[in-house]
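Dear colleagues,

As part of the handover before I leave the project, I'm documenting each prediction I ran so the next person doesn't have to rerun anything. This entry is a single chain, and its sequence is reproduced below.
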Amino acid sequence: MTSRVLVAGFATRHVAQSAFNAGYSVYAVDHFCDQDLNWYTKDRIRFEDLENLPDAIEEMCHRYQFDMLVVTSGAEDLATGIPLFGTSGEKVARFLDKLDMQHFFEDLGVPVAGLAQTGKFPAMIKPRRGAGGWRNTIVKDEREITAWKELYPEIPYILQLVVDGRPASVCCVADGTRARAVAVNEQILRGGSTSAFGFCGSVTPYEYPLNRHMIAIAETIAASSGCTGTVGIDFVAGKEPVAIEINPRFQATVDTVETATGCNLFQLHINACRGILPEVTPHPAKYAARGILFADRDMMIRSDLRRLSPIITDIPWPDTFLEKGQAITSVFGWGGTREAALALLDKNIKMVQQYLG
């Protein structure tokens, strides 16, 4: 009998698709409920705000019985009666607070961006909770800290030293005491004057001279964290790899990891929760690139973009209204080299833009 899995969180399409491809019967509770989420799920419930997520999960549990629960961002510490396949809420709590995460890195003795002392600039200011990096900002003086606090009032924050290098991540799977790296990823950030450090894509694999060293650090972090299932470690890859954050959940790099390596990350996640890890890190067969396309103005999506699958995912429904700055869809490119993958990504983005007018 096929296991019935509920995937719950702010965005779930990437996990639901992986679970579907692994042969599971998939249901989802999701903020977006894009077109392609329908392709991979038996049923789905959309919620508006994260405070509505528990009620949406409860409603889904009234409809069906589930064999397993897998969570994504926003649902990591929710308690339900469904068997959880992933890191428990008790263990995950310290990694949802960036200050506690900082102390974990320091106690472990891995290279980490240090906390900035008062008056030490430039510094990176970031909320203590949250994912995606959208509110992270480099501040150069106390006035800019005050401006950030006025923009995001009553949000606790930390200040870190700025580290030079390229944003990267290592996707691992862990069983609570051991970990194995699955892929190394180059992260694409949005740039510009606002939300400059917001995640907007990835390239897998990432070629970095110190990859083996970064993988070793990532496996040490993931194994020491006590997390189970897929775990992402964010780095700045410079003269040495410097750890930035732990993501104790499925990461936004799922699509490029699976395309590049040919592995099914959902099944690796379930196996790790059962104490089974890959013997070796999968060898990438090609390069995969993903870019998130954002609305450059308030706009209505008139076209049915599903005809562009599989070069796009997270496909909005026709007549969806998007405000300027909102994500429209994810676009992909692939090839035998990084350059070829990025060239195809750029070509595909331009084609999608034509459909958007």
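Residues 4-85 form a domain with the Rossmann fold fold (CATH 3.40.50.20). Residues 92 and 248 are 7 Å apart (CA to CA).

All the best with the project,
I.
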